[in-house]
Please model this.
Amino acid sequence: MYSNEVRGVAVACFSATIFCGPFMGPFIGGFITNSYLGWRWTAYIPALMGFSSCIFAFFFQKESYGPVILVEKAANLRRLTRNWGIHAKQDEVEVDLGELLKKNLSRPIRILFTEPIILLVTIYLSFIYGLLYLNLTAYGLVFGQVYGWAPGVNGLPYFGLIIGVFIGFLSILATQPGYVKKLKANNNIPVPEWRLPLTMVGGIIFAAGLFWFGWGGYKASTPWIVPTLAGVFLGFGIYVVFLCCLNYIIGKSSEPIPINE
Model:
């Protein structure tokens, strides 16, 4: 869908929504629960949104995959012209279950276990993504039990994490011109390792945010702003690490595979 020049920005936008969604959920859900709607509407509202999106997509979203469009066009031309020899290139391809499994299942598994760097990056991403959702629980404990804030209000410190994600997004945009310049100098051939320098910065900042939040949020005598500001480091670190590593894996997975494989 995206060229090498803009794919990083596209993945950055996608990843920002992936992180900001869970960060916004606790305080939105808390305020809904405290309102006249009650806690059940924290499930009803997402269900209504999901079903509505599904219905609209089913009736109004047009097919965008090129081969499928050509197959439909060829079928229409056959009906109009009565020339049954008209066909698309995709009509010549026979769907083979074994080939589908090889390309879509075995190849990712082979890359995972035969490329040590992919395996290590995957383990690291799994670890920090788990820490992300542990933080979602920890914030409720710190600001709900330690500081005694009411549901909804105790989710407002998540804005620190959201600000951190936004700063990380701006950092990605700031590095994009340099990436495009190197890409053009290399005949539009991306090097996955170009994505990693910002990962090293994000990993250090994320670890610092964990220590900051742990030491600043375990007693009520500490001002609430202290653990809240730690969220800026946490949001920036986890977003940058996850995004750059994801782009790195995409780059490694897009490298040519020898024909004998």
Notes: Helices lie at 7-34, 41-60, 66-81, 97-114, 116-146, 158-185, 197-216, 225-253. The radius of gyration is 24 Å.
